[in-house]
Amino acid sequence: MLLFTPGPTPTPESIRQAMATPTLHHRTKEFESIFAKARLGLQTMLNMEEVLMLASSGTGAMEASVLQFCHSKLLSISCGKFGQRWGKIALANNLPHTELVKEWDTPISAQEVLEALQSDPSIDTLALQVCESAGGLRLPLEQIAREVKAYRQDIIIIADAITAMGVEPLDTTHIDVLIGGSQKAFMLPPGMSIIGLSKRALEVLEARPTHRGGLYFSFLTELKNQRKNTTAWTAPTTLITGLVRYFEIVQALASSNLDSALESSAQELDSSLLAQGFLRAYTHTRAISLATREAISALGLSLYPKSPALAMSAIAHTDSAKIRQRMKALGVNVAAGQDHIKDSIFRINHMGLIHIYEASYAINALELSLDTLGLRSFDGAGNASFFGALKKQEIL
Ligand SMILES: *Cc1c(COP(=O)(O)O)cnc(C)c1O
């Protein structure tokens, strides 16, 4: 079965092999050297002042980030189920909170965020998604961050980039906290979150060492340890080993195709080669994502969000549940929606380094499913336009 859900994503064989080695003790030179590689990889990838790896799913990092930085009041943006989570975090921790809520297909605008900040000077932290996975929606994060910082430099901006990190290049100039998760574009099993911190975030942490984060999620304690290539508590050693293998694969992409990169041998990480590899990875993901959109429209289907993200294609269809079931019978697992749009959309993942032949088969399975359900006769239009688009983007 091809796993085409927007998290978890499939883990390539060579990453699984890397993680199948005997468990290392985390307080050893051997593990410290692996940890140092993981840090270098993340620093290159995120281009931020500091990085942290935490043993938690993405939500753990979201909660930890809010609790480290929010001292007076949180403003959160809810354009879907993950955006709602900020509010739940505030509520669970008894934190003063205000929220801007949009329909799940509609991005918030910078103007709306600014108005909310202007009307409440007690807000010190803004939390939002880069890509809201509930509806496959891309928020105008960079513009919001730029305008918020121009209005009030001291607001801490926390961005959940769990379905954007590793998908597209992100301008982190105005972002203080950038959150990622192992089970999305990193192609690792779930269980580790990743955090990028700005210079300003570090200053705030150091100036206000008291926070609501409790003992386990203390960024200051982690920083002290992780700068020395160790962790405060027992590290998720297996996932960190897998993360290093992911960076090796991406680095190999700088000079080879995807198949060879996936099978490349272990190598020293080099920042500039790795950065080149990431550009290739982003181009690859973007090409598949845009070509899939063309195929979707050639099949007479339409996307759900008004501003679609590259990470996934969320397709609006009243027969979504049946289409998913048919696709599954053809060996392709795509995700349903959630909550009130559970059966009115389905989502095809583009995160991670996906083979063109797999993405192409997923489109074929979609077109065949429409045919079986009597919705549209099969004529190969999906793949014709998918490959046409890839050729135009000079990917083939
Ligand atoms: C997957 C995802 C998360 C993380 O959820 P966990 O289940 O805690 O890993 C958070 N935000 C977004 C946008 C996601 O797609």
TrEMBL record:
What cofactors does this protein use? pyridoxal 5'-phosphate
Ligand binding (substrate): 347
A molecular-function term among this protein's GO annotations = transaminase activity
- Which InterPro entries does the record cross-reference, listed alphabetically? Aminotrans_V_dom (IPR000192), Aminotrans_V_PyrdxlP_BS (IPR020578), PyrdxlP-dep_Trfase (IPR015424), PyrdxlP-dep_Trfase_major (IPR015421), PyrdxlP-dep_Trfase_small (IPR015422), SP_NH2Trfase/AEP_transaminase (IPR024169)
Q: In its keyword annotation, does this UniProt entry include Transferase?
A: yes
Q: Name one Pfam family in it.
A: Aminotran_5
List the SUPFAM superfamilies hit by this protein, alphabetically: PLP-dependent transferases
Q: Which domain of life is it from?
A: Bacteria
Question: Which residues are annotated as modified residue N6-(pyridoxal phosphate)lysine in the UniProt record?
Answer: 184
Q: Which Gene3D superfamilies match?
A: Aspartate Aminotransferase, domain 1, Type I PLP-dependent aspartate aminotransferase-like (Major domain)
Keyword terms? Aminotransferase, Pyridoxal phosphate, Transferase
Which stretches make up the Aminotransferase class V domain?
A: 21-285
What family name appears in the similarity comment? Belongs to the class-V pyridoxal-phosphate-dependent aminotransferase family.
Name the UniProt record assigns to this protein: Aminotransferase class V domain-containing protein
Q: What organism is listed for this UniProt entry?
A: Helicobacter canis NCTC 12740
